[in-house]
């Protein structure tokens, strides 16, 4: 459930229509959580950064490519990495996860260097807003799976010819106590 909580969390940022368009099947007989997750996203408050039009959540480059191919304009791409667990000096379990949040924009093949610079500047501004909101949420202890965002963040350029996109990626680590209930 931790992964779906992060999907729901990041769904708060882009336009709602851009998030709901990820549900391309419309329903799932294999996974009952599909319908409830879609309903949870529909009930979210207005988007925090409505200038971000689309949403991509995943790891498989082929599926990400297919998703991005269906988008136009700006999008938020959230990539989740491995989990690591450790015991602190009091015997408490501390779980960490590496994550990356990219704000990018698709460009046409005919985009020139000035258009690329404008798109790069636009996406850096949007990513800075997203980062500020992530830090604020972390300080307030929201959401539970992200009780603390790492003090160190890397912001790196995102240039992807295969996705016809440019933007910026925020790489960070989130930490929480015993995410998977190992001590229960």
What's the short story on this structure?
This protein is α+β, with helices and mostly antiparallel strands and 184 residues long. The chain contains five helices and six strands.
The helical percent reads: 25-40%
Mean pLDDT: 90
What is the approximate shape? globular
Strand tally is: 6
Ranges where pLDDT stays below 50 over 5 or more residues in a row are none
Sheet-strand content, in percent, reads: 25-35%
Number of helices: 5
- First and last CA, distance: 16 Å
Radius of gyration: 17 Å
Q: What characterizes the major β-sheet?
A: 6 strands, mixed
H and E order? HHHEHEEHEEE
Class of secondary structure makeup:
alpha+beta
Polypeptide structure, described:
Strands 1, 2, 3, 4, 5 and 6 form a 6-stranded mixed sheet that branches. The mean pLDDT is 90. Helix content is 33%, strand content 29%. The protein is α+β, with helices and mostly antiparallel strands and 184 residues long. The protein is globular, with a radius of gyration of 17 Å. Strand 1, helix 4 and strand 2 (74-87) form a beta-alpha-beta unit. It is built from 5 helices and 6 strands, in the order αααβαββαβββ. The protein starts with a helix and ends in a 7-residue tail after the last strand.
């Amino acid at each position: 459930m931790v992964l779906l909580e992060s999907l729901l969390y990041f769904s708060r940022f882009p336009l709602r229509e851009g998030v709901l368009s990820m549900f391309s099947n419309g329903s799932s007989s294999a996974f009952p959580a599909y319908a409830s997750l879609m309903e949870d996203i529909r009930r979210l408050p207005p988007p925090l950064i409505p200038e971000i039009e689309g949403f991509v959540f995943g790891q498989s480059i082929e599926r990400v490519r297919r998703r991005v191919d269906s988008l136009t304009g700006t999008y938020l791409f959230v990539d989740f990495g491995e989990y690591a667990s450790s015991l602190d000096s009091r015997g408490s379990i501390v779980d960490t996860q590496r994550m990356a949040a990219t704000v990018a924009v698709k460009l046409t093949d005919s985009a020139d260097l000035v258009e690329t610079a404008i798109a790069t500047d636009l996406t850096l501004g949007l990513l800075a807003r997203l980062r500020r909101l992530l830090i604020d949420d972390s300080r307030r202890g929201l959401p539970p799976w992200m009780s603390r965002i790492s003090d160190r963040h890397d912001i790196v350029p995102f240039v992807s010819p295969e996705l016809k996109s440019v933007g910026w990626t925020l790489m960070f680590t989130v930490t929480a106590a015993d995410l998977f209930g190992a001590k229960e």
